[in-house]
Design brief:
77% of the residues lie in helices and 0% in strands. It is built from 10 helices and no strands. It holds the Pfam family TetR_N.
Length: 195
């Protein structure tokens, strides 16, 4: 099997696993359910993944990669810096959560994340902080913002912003109110930076 075919097969499995997890929950989902949803046999599934925990972690990385790419795309997109940063913050958080939160088993899937993929959540923090810090440096080089007015370096600004976003996520009751709070947060944090 070629590398491209293997990648497509893994992607098919992960997409099927996601649909199965949101439909049945993590605990009720079996490897047989995932195999059936992916259109492959259980033995073929076991050739790719040892357990549904491995699949969940791989799915989390898959979602994380997409969220990080959406964040980078938004930061490099059109508009003023505050607008780009707002779109990036939402792309990296709320947009990714909407497909999970509103499902019957969304709460369970988040609880499972704490048990088996907490380290991957830290990876999300690190990547988003790095992307935002780089965007701040680029925006200052282009004359869009002045970091000195915030009395923070890019790394500190990015760390505080991402930590505040995570706090909003932890306390959120629904995606729409969390989105509104993230928009307000980015506005408040970027206002002193804008030239």
């Amino acid at each position: 099997m070629s590398e491209a075919e293997n990648s497509n097969r893994r992607s098919t499995i992960l997409d099927a696993a996601f649909r199965t997890f949101v439909a049945y929950g993590f605990k009720r989902t079996t490897m047989a359910d995932i195999a059936a949803a992916a259109g492959i046999s259980r033995p073929a599934l076991y050739l790719e993944f040892k357990s549904k925990t491995d699949i969940y972690r791989a799915e989390f990385v898959h979602l994380l990669d997409r969220a990080n790419q959406a964040t980078r795309d938004a930061l490099m997109g059109e508009g003023d810096f505050s607008s780009r940063l707002t779109r990036a913050a939402l792309a990296g958080t709320i947009d990714a959560l909407r497909n999970i939160v509103d499902t019957p088993h969304g709460a369970e899937l988040f609880d499972v994340k704490q048990e088996i993929a907490e380290d991957l959540g830290r990876l999300w923090f690190d990547r988003m902080e790095d992307d935002i810090a780089r965007a701040l440096v680029d925006a200052e080089a282009k004359g869009e913002i002045t970091l000195a007015s915030s009395k923070m370096d890019p790394t500190t600004f990015a760390r505080l912003l991402v930590s505040a976003i995570e706090g909003i996520k932890l306390r959120m009751t629904d995606c729409d109110s969390a989105e509104a709070d993230i928009r307000r947060l980015v506005f408040l944090m970027t206002r002193p930076l804008i030239n």
